[in-house]
Amino acid sequence: MSTFYDKIHDKEIAPIGLGTWNMGDELRKQDEEIQALRHGLDLGISIIDTAEMYGNGRSEKIVGQAIKGRRDSVYLVSKVLPSNANFDGTIRACERSLSFLQTDYLDLYLLHWQGQYSFQETIDAMEELKNQQKIKAWGVSNMDVAEMEEILGTSSGRFCETNQVLYNLRRRGIEYDLKPFHDQQKIVTMAYSPIEQGRILTNKTLQSIAEKHQVSAAQIALAWVLSHQNVVPIPKSASAKRVEENVHSLKIQLDHEDVEKLNLEFPAPTRKVSLEMI
Ligand code: NDP
Fold first, then answer.
1. For residue 1, what pLDDT is reported?
2. Which residues of the chain have pLDDT under 50?
């Protein structure tokens, strides 16, 4: 069976996903959120990222409604909370997520961040979930190099398929060591908050490059993330129009001059930077 890395590199699935944090929190916005996710799927996007944490399962319920009748075209990712990530707790959390999502399997199940339980215990549960065909693959989130080394050192740790981390123009620390580590191990870097939750969009350099390409600042920020090999940004939008805008960033090619300007404005790390989180 092909791994997440193979699927991305063989272009079996598009290297951009749909984030869902905060979805489901407001009743009056739910229809729009479901439409936004469905529109993303209509445009050929497969990856949907959610978590049991988001709205205590409310985001998973929204995703469940959005993917109804089209499960086969979705690459579904959810996450277990560290406080649930002992052996039995992980199994139960996954079953709960499956019922909220109205499906019988996840494509990828992640440990949201490191908690009090050993990696080995969580990984044993992940492997059991694979045996039970409740998940197809597993990975982690918010892990720096030292934690990744520990994970890969556990039995079955080599099956870790992704590490979902904060990565955008303003948060480039992982380029120093974590990203090269992932690449070497064929672990996909999922980039969360790829437009820094909207906060970088007023940046003048970003805006001037956007103007030159006649696109939006968000699209340039996403095109920059996408210009890196083995990285999958998962922007969140509750608007079908902005989802479409984000998906179209796949078509934007930044030129040498754009990249130079962005490097000046948002410098690459020159030393180890501890992994940042949101
Ligand atoms: P993003 O960087 O994706 O930004 C989302 C914000 O930007 C929303 O307010 C959205 O508003 C707005 N936005 C989206 N597209 C556009 C656009 N084209 N133009 C202008 N504004 C836009 O931040 P997130 O923190 O949501 O990260 C993305 C996803 O990553 C999350 O939803 C979640 O799935 C995951 N995540 C994982 C974490 C982890 O610990 N593993 C931590 C944080 C996020 P609107 O919806 O109104 O369009």
1. 80
2. none
Q: Which of 193, 225, 243, 252 to mutate to test the pocket of ligand 1 (most atoms within 8 A of CB)?
A: 193
Residue 54 is a catalytic residue = yes
Q: Is the pTM of this model over 0.85?
A: yes
48-59: pLDDT as tens digits: 999 999 999 999
The per-residue pLDDT for 203 is 98
Q: Are 219 and 249 in contact (CB under 8 A)?
A: yes
Residue type present at position 267:
P
Q: Is the CB of 196 under 6 A from ligand 1?
A: yes
Instruction: Give which of 165, 111, 166, 152 is closest to 135, Cα–Cα.
Output: 111
Strand order in the sheet with 47-49: 17-18, 47-49, 75-80, 108-111, 138-141, 160-166, 188-192, 231-233
DSSP label at residue 265 = H
Residue 9 DSSP symbol: H
Indicate whether residue 97 lines ligand 1 (CB < 6 A): no
Q: How far, in Å, CA of 115 to CA of 92, rounded?
A: 17
pLDDT at 72: 97
